[in-house]
Design goal:
26 helices, about 750 residues, about 40% helix, alpha/beta
Length: about 750
């Protein structure tokens, strides 16, 4: 009998027991690191070679950076200020260099004394701070620094090896402090439990996990780093794919009611009245969906389609098939504007087939009801009644659909529009309303590269609609450099007037609403002169309310200009959208509330202000709102960013291609992947640390195959204790729920 209680696994020990409470607190709060294992899996972002310096020329604005450089010059200046009126204020300006560029460091006040003594010309050090611009020059204000002295024993020891690891850091904890903490826990890496089955590891020639951890934190050569990264990528890809494979395996065991459309039923009647034929893509995807609906376990399918590729029609046909089979279908939309719009377009497409139980309704008809939070009591009560009796075959709504009091007669299919806008809990609550798990169809207009779909939506089968229906017009996109060429912006407003004169309408999109609740930025305090890039970066983003007023009084005077944003009352929003859809408004100045699903075929032009403030995929989504009719669309991307900036290159990419899949690759390469399992998009504690879903396509595809083989043979993973441990670590409670609810 063992009288000594078992000690915690070394990697599960809390950091505060190893590093001391203050450091552990910062690591937990700012980096999401709580245990020794968490810290060992906080890998260096890159490495500095002793003899090689960072390219100061390539520093990103407004980011926290660590650079290794040499002091070229240090000067102490005196100046007068409010705090030191007699010219006794002190400012230390230090210029550092790396051969590729120079960077200014500034220290003020009493903070100048220590750096003045330490940072003598010729000194080499690591500097850490946030990059800003002053007088058109990059600078770090009050950076933290660590001198790199070959003679000081501690420095030699802590920077052992030729490669200096630079870690993802925060203002509260510099890279070299993280490196010292890693040094403390590195011996524990020997106890890391290996999640990869031996046969897989040996078959692919991968190093063991303890060896990989030692090599990534303390590499002696670049080959060490490559070995470690190759191994750690496999860990991430394989453990994640095993989690998803188990999810798919469990789903396949759930019972569901097969839903086959009736012969000569509602779907047949609907198809007969369509004024056009379905595209090949729509027919193929519909067949995939109908095949799934006929099975006795729940469909879990992701329907991807470019804006305007006809996803809603495909989803509606699936809903009609389920109604035909005696069930009900629910469409969950992210906003009231979109729910109302879906309801209108479904009722229009169905005609008298949507008038079940009404005078003049077809004998094969059903009822299509809308349910949103802002509905009146009487209308809401009637909608709830129609759902519980089964009178309504189709319900379209917002999260109001998932409230406890909403009961269905027989929920057979849940369609979720724009999945990324919904919390998993919301989807789960709706799915829980079926007597047996309903079938699930998730629609997204954001094109997702194949490996991302495998990783992010790995528990869903994927259907892609990549063909635009006949009659859709091309969209011409151009960047309008407002700062370099102000006359281009004047021309943009002339183009809007020309479109309106031709009987069309236009959108103007701004990043912000402009009432006090969302004031962003400080508008550039401090009274100092700024560079063009600094001005463009630092001023608050342009706002709907201000822009609308300026346009109505200025370049678009005489046109009907209205505003639309998320903080308006739902009835007001709907009224504005109705007027715009009816052609009563010439120009709609809006936030991204119009990004998803708003369909006004007569709108042909869109001007996106401060376009550099939006992501690539978001710009592509927004652009998809024009050119929806027979007239060609025009999208103008207005930016004040200088021509050479990364932001402008991003906008040029959007302007030069209409291929959403290509753009989503660019977007991902720039944004990284965020947390593919949880809701966290911060990247601070992402489950992907070395795996890049775009670059590592092969690893992910192979890991998926290996994972399926392992799970098929041993769903409980009883033969793989190390893999189970890694899964438990990946699927902490929040992520476990995320997959459960997928």
């Amino acid at each position: 009998m063992d009288l000594v209680p078992a000690l915690k696994e070394p990697l599960e020990r809390p950091l505060k027991s190893v590093l001391g409470p203050a450091t552990a607190k910062v690591m937990a709060e700012h980096l999401g690191l709580h245990t020794v294992g968490d810290l060992l899996h906080h890998y260096p972002r890159r490495y500095e070679e002793r003899g090689q310096l960072t390219h100061l020329a390539d520093l990103p604005m407004d980011e926290h950076v660590t650079v290794v450089a040499q002091v070229a010059d240090a000067r102490l200046h005196s100046f007068a200020s409010a705090k030191a009126p007699r010219g006794k204020g002190q400012r230390l300006e230090v210029t550092i260099t790396d051969g590729s560029g120079r960077l200014q460091l500034v220290f003020f006040g009493s903070g100048v004394h220590k750096p003045h003594k330490d940072l003598l010309p010729g000194t080499r050090a690591m500097f850490s701070g946030k990059v800003s611009v002053f007088n058109r020059r990059l600078q770090l204000a009050h950076p933290a620094y660590e001198l790199l002295r070959a003679d000081a024993e501690e420095s030699v020891e802590s920077w052992a090896g030729a490669l200096i690891p630079l870690y993802p850091a925060t203002a509260k904890l510099e890279s070299w402090k993280i490196a010292k903490a890693v040094q403390t826990v590195l011996p524990d890496a020997r106890d890391a439990v290996d999640p990869l089955p031996d046969s897989l590891r040996e078959g692919r020639g991968l190093v063991s996990l303890p060896e990989a951890l030692l090599k990534i934190h303390r590499p002696h050569t670049k080959a060490d780093i490559a070995d470690a990264r190759a191994r750690l990528k496999w860990d991430e890809a394989f453990v994640l794919q095993v989690a998803l494979a188990r999810r798919r395996h469990a789903d396949a065991l759930l019972p569901a009611v097969p839903r086959r459309p009736a012969v000569d039923g509602l779907l047949t009647a609907f198809d007969a009245r369509l004024p056009f034929t379905l595209t090949e893509g729509q027919q193929k995807v519909s067949k995939e969906i109908f095949d799934d609906l006929a099975l006795d376990h729940p469909m879990h399918r992701l329907l991807q389609g470019e804006v305007g590729s006809g996803k809603t029609l495909v989803a509606l046909r699936a809903m009609l098939a389920v109604v035909d089979a005696g069930g009900q279908a629910a469409l969950l939309a992210p906003t009231e504007v979109l729910a109302q719009q879906h309801h209108r377009s479904v009722v229009e497409m169905m005609g008298d087939l949507a008038e079940g139980g009404m005078l003049g309704g077809s004998d094969r008809a059903t009822k299509v009801v809308l349910l949103t939070g802002s509905m009146g009591t009487a209308a809401r009560r009637q909608a709830l009644l129609d759902l519980v009796t089964g009178e309504a075959g189709i319900v379209i709504g917002t999260h109001a659909l998932i409230e406890d009091k909403v009961q269905f007669h027989d929920l057979g299919l849940v369609v979720v529009d724009e999945q990324h806008r919904f919390g998993v809990e919301q989807r789960d609550a709706l799915r829980g309303k079926g007597r047996q798990p309903p079938h699930l169809l998730v629609m997204t207009a954001t094109p997702i590269p194949r490996t991302v779909a495998m990783t992010v939506f790995g528990d869903l089968e994927t259907s892609v609609l990549d063909q635009l229906p006949a009659g859709r017009s091309p969209i011409a996109s151009h960047v309008v450099p407002a700062a370099d060429k102000p006359h281009f912006l004047a021309r943009a407003w002339e183009r809007v007037r020309e479109e309106v004169a031709g009987g069309h309408q236009a959108y103007v999109v701004c990043p912000r609403i402009g009432d006090d609740a969302d004031e962003a930025g400080d508008g550039g305090k401090g009274g100092r002169k700024k560079s063009a890039e600094d001005e463009a970066e630092k001023r608050p983003p342009l706002a709907v309310l201000e822009v609308a007023e300026q346009l109505a009084k200025g370049p678009l005077s005489g046109l009907g200009v209205e505003v639309l944003h998320g903080r308006m009352h739902p009835d007001d929003k709907d009224a504005v959208m109705r007027r715009f859809a009816a052609g009563d408004t010439d120009v709609l100045v809006a936030t991204t509330v119009i990004e998803v699903g708003v369909n006004v075929p007569n709108a042909t032009a869109m001007v996106i202000m401060d376009a550099d403030r939006f992501g690539v995929s978001q710009l592509h989504q927004l652009r998809g709102r024009v050119g929806r009719g027979s007239a060609p669309g025009l999208c103008l991307l207005v930016s004040e960013m200088p021509e050479a900036s990364a932001a402008r290159q991003r906008l040029n990419a959007v302007a030069t291609t209409l291929d959403g899949f290509e753009l989503s690759r660019i977007d991902l390469e720039q944004r990284r992947e965020g947390d593919v399992l949880g809701q966290a998009q911060s990247g601070a504690r992402t489950s992907l640390r070395v795996l890049a879903v775009i670059e590592d396509e092969e690893v992910i595809a192979e890991a998926r195959q290996e994972a399926v083989a392992v799970v098929t043979a041993d769903p409980e993973l009883s033969a793989y204790p190390g893999l189970r441990t890694a899964l438990d670590a990946l699927l902490d409670e929040e992520r476990e729920q995320y997959l459960e609810k997928g």
